[in-house]
């Protein structure tokens, strides 16, 4: 299976088994009082920059991003370290008042939404171990990016490796 096929298969697994079962807040940087829950999307590679979103996608965040770190091939087998980045938007508490208006209070608790998404992702990967034909290898690791949390966005990651067949070698006749 090619590297691209592995990443795409993991994307489909995450869409079906993780994202379809959770809703998180949609970013609304221009109107912080706006509160809408959406299903996270799954990207491969990177989060699409503004202006380059596929038309079928409503928002780029909340999301999971399936990528890879540095692959290796020792001639016998190939190893592909997978990194799934998670991004959520959580500016604070939204409370609907009696008059229908929304009161917004920043609370810096977005890490809770982030960790809930990460925990669901890790649980589904551990429970299934084969993600649409892609066998994972333990350990599964996860964490939060500690130095770059640009409030009200929160970022974390899940990492594991997959093995694939080594690339074929050319026969050299002497």
Helix and strand layout, with pairings?
Layout: H1 3-17, E1 24-25, E2 37-38, E3 41-44, E4 63-68, E5 72-73, E6 77-89, E7 92-96, E8 102-106, H2 110-128, E9 130-131, E10 134-144, E11 153-165
Parallel strand pairs: 3-4
Antiparallel strand pairs: 1-2, 4-6, 5-6, 6-11, 7-8, 9-10, 10-11
Task: Provide a short characterization of the protein structure.
The protein has 174 residues and is an alpha+beta fold. The chain has two helices and eleven strands; from the N terminus they run H-E-E-E-E-E-E-E-E-H-E-E-E. A hairpin with a 2-residue loop joins strand 9 (130-131) and strand 10.
Report on this structure.
By secondary structure, this protein is of the alpha+beta class. The chain has one domain. The chain contains 2 helices and 11 strands. Strands 3, 4, 5, 6, 9, 10 and 11 form a 7-stranded mixed beta sheet that branches. A hairpin with a 3-residue loop joins β5 and β6. The longest helix has 19 residues. The radius of gyration is 19 Å and the shape is elongated. The mean pLDDT is 87.
Order of helices and strands: HEEEEEEEEHEEE
Apparent shape: elongated
**Averaged pLDDT:** 87
What Rg do the Cα atoms give? 19 Å
Number of domains: 1
Give the strand content: 35-45%
Q: Count the helices. How many?
A: 2
Structural class: alpha+beta
Q: Helix proportion of residues, in percent?
A: 10-25%
Task: Considering the chains and any ligands shown, give keywords for the structure.
37% strand; single chain; 174 residues; 7-stranded mixed beta sheet; 20% helix; two-stranded antiparallel ribbon; alpha+beta; 2 helices; elongated
